[in-house]
Amino acid sequence: MKKLLVSAFALFLSIGMFAQETKSFPTLPENVSVKTLDGKTVQTSTFNNDGKPYILSFWATWCKPCLRELNTIKEVYEDWQEETGVKIIAVSIDDARGASRVKPLVNGSGWEYEVYIDQNQDLKRAMNVVNVPHTFIINGKGEVVWQHTSFVEGSEEELIELVRKVMNGEDISESK
Q: Residues 158, 164: contact at Cβ < 8 Å?
């Protein structure tokens, strides 16, 4: 009986490991509200880039890697837009205490991104975001085709290369 239980447990673990290898991406919910920097409510159903891919970046004011990522991208963002038309939507997950710091930080950083605040973290939960920075590439059809957490110098080059591939209709779901 003990061997049978051990075998069954091993089979269960191997099936679980196999299932974890399968890539599945969250879908962008359409009925979640976020706030603009001016406090206006916006539905996520309005997130788009006229049929071109966009980058959805979850961040927080207290997250140093998040700030490094968004500041690094700021340096090349104009070139990216000219080449691919990609747009960045940056969503702060700061709670009520930290939300008041978002607008001054964004203005002081000179980011030209669309920035929203997910103060109640509804979008964060809907997208299964646990750690920030958490970056998604959304294709022109509004489908999540890639996601990644963390940031290291040089990650921005991989990010734009993946956007280029999406623009060319290539499947990037196995990347990273």
A: no
